[in-house]
């Protein structure tokens, strides 16, 4: 097995571990809210990961890891596609689950305090702009 294959395998395993944090956050938030809102929290966590994944795929990854423009944001990799570059695809998945986890942390802070539609707006804003901009400044 080559070093690159091991790197890819490790990134996928690490992404699976980070993804399992979603379940832990769901359990934590379900325990923090009143019993009547437990299923709403679970649906909100699923929805925020799905929405953040779509937005991160559309623009977030490009802002975070595209070619730097004035040191502020990236410009490239929008609508992320790979031509069998498995390392880049694994890296994208790894970053995607971290973006989703960052959004889920916000979900715990606003449980039972915000309407679902308003929360989805925050999810789009954070996964499309806030997380990628700060990520570009740190790792881009």
Radius of gyration: 16 Å
CATH superfamily: Ammonium transporter AmtB like domains
Task: Report the biggest beta sheet as strand number plus sense, adding barrel if it closes.
Answer: 2 strands, antiparallel
Helix/strand-derived class? Answer: mainly alpha
Q: Averaged pLDDT, please?
A: 90
Low-confidence stretches: none
Assembly state of the chains shown:
single chain
Domains (count): 1
Binned, the helix content reads over 70%
Instruction: Quickly give the CATH architecture.
Output: Orthogonal Bundle
Strand sequence of the main sheet, in spatial order?
A: 1-2
CATH class identity: Mainly Alpha
Q: What best-fitting shape do the alpha-carbon axes yield?
A: globular
What's the helix-strand series?
HHEEHH
CATH topology: Ammonium transporter fold
């Amino acid at each position: 097995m080559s070093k690159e294959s091991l790197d890819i395998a490790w990134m996928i395993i690490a992404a699976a571990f980070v993804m399992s944090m979603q379940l832990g956050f769901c359990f934590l938030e379900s325990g923090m809210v009143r019993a009547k809102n437990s299923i709403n929290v679970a649906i909100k966590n699923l929805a925020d990961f799905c929405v953040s994944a779509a937005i991160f795929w559309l623009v977030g990854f490009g802002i975070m890891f595209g070619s730097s423009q004035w040191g502020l944001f990236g410009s490239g990799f929008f609508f992320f596609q790979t031509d069998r570059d498995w390392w880049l695809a694994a890296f994208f998945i790894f970053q995607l689950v971290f973006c989703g986890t960052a959004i889920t942390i916000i979900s715990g802070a606003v449980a039972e305090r915000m309407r679902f539609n308003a929360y989805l707006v925050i999810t789009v804003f954070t996964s499309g702009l806030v997380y990628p901009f700060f990520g570009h400044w740190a790792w881009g």
